[in-house]
Specification:
This protein is mostly helical. Helices cover 71% and strands 0% of the residues. It comes from Rugosibacter aromaticivorans.
Length: 140
């Protein structure tokens, strides 16, 4: 049986799951990552990289969609986004977090935080999360 097709499909599926779960769509990229490395442990590094890239690109998609919105001018809107404005791009280190992660990506885009530092902080946080997931898989 040819497992290369299955592996390629699995890696592509992981990338898509990671991308979609970083947008406003709910997803379970961590489960997809765990399933893939359980079936193909030799592909752990590739799975880690693809999940991180896909999830970061999904977060940046949310960033760019929010950046297309009109700039915020109302004081009460800006007060609610004080965390993102106060910490700047490094706040996107928390873009992996459930519930607030998508909101932080959108806030960063809406507030016009610089995209490149934002993408780097976002990727770092998402990579750390997937690293913890993979490390935890060793304990299962």
């Amino acid at each position: 049986m040819d497992f290369s097709f299955t592996l390629q499909f699995g890696l592509a599926g992981l990338f898509i799951a990671a991308f979609l779960s970083a947008t406003v769509l709910p997803g379970g990229s961590e489960l997809a990552l765990l399933a893939l490395i359980k079936l193909h442990p030799e592909q752990t590094e590739a799975a880690f990289v693809l999940a991180t890239i896909g999830n970061t690109l999904g977060g940046m998609t949310t960033y760019w969609m929010a950046r297309a919105l009109p700039e915020p001018h109302e004081p009460h809107s800006l007060q609610r986004l004080a965390l993102a404005r106060r910490w700047g791009a490094p706040v996107l280190l928390l873009a992996w977090a459930p519930v607030i992660g998508d909101a932080l990506c959108a806030a960063a885009g809406w507030l016009r935080l610089p995209w490149l530092p934002g993408a780097l902080w976002m990727a770092l946080g998402k990579a750390a999360r997937y690293g913890v997931v993979i490390a935890g898989a060793g304990w299962l």
